[in-house]
Design a protein that fits this description.
Elements (H helix, E strand, L loop, with lengths): L1 H9 L4 H14 L14 E3 L2 E3 L3 E3 L10 H6 L4 E7 L12 E4 L4 E4 L8 H9 L7 E6 L8 H12 L5 E5 L14 H15 L6 E5 L5 H13 L4 E4 L19 E4 L3 H15 L4 E5 L5 H9 L4 E4 L1 H6 L3 H15 L5 H4 L4
Parallel strand pairs: 3-4, 3-13, 4-7, 7-8, 8-9, 9-10, 10-12, 12-13
Antiparallel strand pairs: 1-2, 5-6, 6-11
Length: 343
């Protein structure tokens, strides 16, 4: 209720400024109660025991300033980043747009972040027992060797991450999505796996929703061959379904409610292509417990959201988690793992 009263004022503020205020408020607020391990929604993925399957996607906390505060909102895990080796300003402003009529967001941020050194200083001071943290890694826009950037990030971040997310699917860094091509992707993952080292955290790969069937098959084969911990399906889309907002023509990645059907279709495609042999993380257009439950039934072991919190507020995590428990029991399942891919 409090957020519904505050939202009209927030929506009169530039979206990027409002995001900064939201992150600041989260940093200054006392941590809430984290999800307890071993609860009814607990699920183990890539050897990690998640207290519930709902996570905050990368992009909200780019620099790892407030992961424990996010966990205190009820998320089962938080993914920070994308973080690049060197600080970079990202693309020119304005670069973030609310499409309120569509319950959507378009961004062309361009991996803006303060770089790995600043993030590492914060992560070194964090209590690893504080909850499950994923670190989303990227390459600098002007890098002459992006594979080396990813390897350097894997080496630096592995000691602080429960899992590493390799982001090759942002549409806002020119040429980045080309790393999803079969030969390029295999070489990139080999470099990341070697840099992570033996006994390091599992590696997840974040893919775009704008993939052809041959791309899906190739990525699936590589993910299985490289024994990745999971695939995050999916990032934002450069396609444009019918939209009402005056910002519909802005360039960048579209997220939020209009991405729901495309992201769900892509999840089902990857479930078929992998045969359920690799964990999937469903993300894109998840606003309700029903959305999350549909994604789980379609094959996702974990789900994530971000844009929905812009419209629904910080209470969304606990609402979805409560709803998931109700839906799981309604449909006669005793665990999340039992429901995965059961549609």
């Amino acid at each position: 209720m409090a957020y519904s009263l505050l939202r009209p004022a927030l929506f009169r503020i530039d979206p990027e400024t409002a995001h900064g205020l939201a992150l600041l408020a989260l940093k200054l607020s006392p941590f809430g109660r984290r999800a307890a391990p071993g609860g009814p929604l607990a699920v183990t993925v890539a050897g990690i025991a998640f207290p519930n399957p709902l996570g905050m996607a990368a992009g909200f906390d780019k620099d790892g300033e407030a992961p424990d505060a996010l966990l205190g909102l009820g998320f089962g895990f938080a993914e920070i980043g994308s973080i690049t080796p060197l600080a970079q300003a990202g693309n020119p402003k304005p670069r973030l747009f609310r499409l309120a009529e569509d319950r959507a967001v378009i961004n062309r941020m361009g991996f803006n972040n303060r770089g790995s050194a600043a993030a590492l200083a914060r992560l070194a001071a964090r209590d690893r027992a504080g909850g499950i943290l994923g670190i989303n890694i990227g390459a600098n826009k002007d890098s002459t060797d992006r594979v080396a950037d990813y390897a350097a990030m894997a080496r630096a971040m592995a000691p602080h991450a429960c899992y590493l997310a390799v982001n090759v699917s942002s549409p806002n860094t020119p040429g980045l999505r080309a790393l999803q091509d079969e030969a390029a992707l295999a070489g990139l993952l080999d470099a990341v796996i070697e840099a992570r080292g033996e006994g390091g955290p599992p590696i997840f790969l974040k893919v775009a929703p704008d993939l052809e069937p041959a791309d899906i098959d190739a990525i699936s084969r590589i993910a299985i061959d490289k024994r990745l911990g999971g695939l995050i399906v999916s990032n934002t889309t450069v396609t444009r379904p019918p939209l009402k907002s005056r910002h519909a023509g802005e360039s960048g990645g579209l997220s939020g409610a209009p991405l729901r059907d495309l992201a769900l279709a892509r999840l089902r495609d990857f479930r078929r292509a992998t045969g359920g042999t690799i964990a999937l993380v469903g993300v894109g257009g998840i606003f309700t417990a029903e959305d999350a439950w549909t994604r789980i039934r379609a094959g996702a072991s974990l789900v994530q959201l971000y844009s929905a919190m812009v419209y629904e507020g910080p209470g969304i995590a606990r609402r979805i988690v409560r709803g998931l428990e109700r839906l799981m029991r309604r449909d006669g399942f005793t665990s999340i793992a039992e429901a995965v891919g059961s549609e």
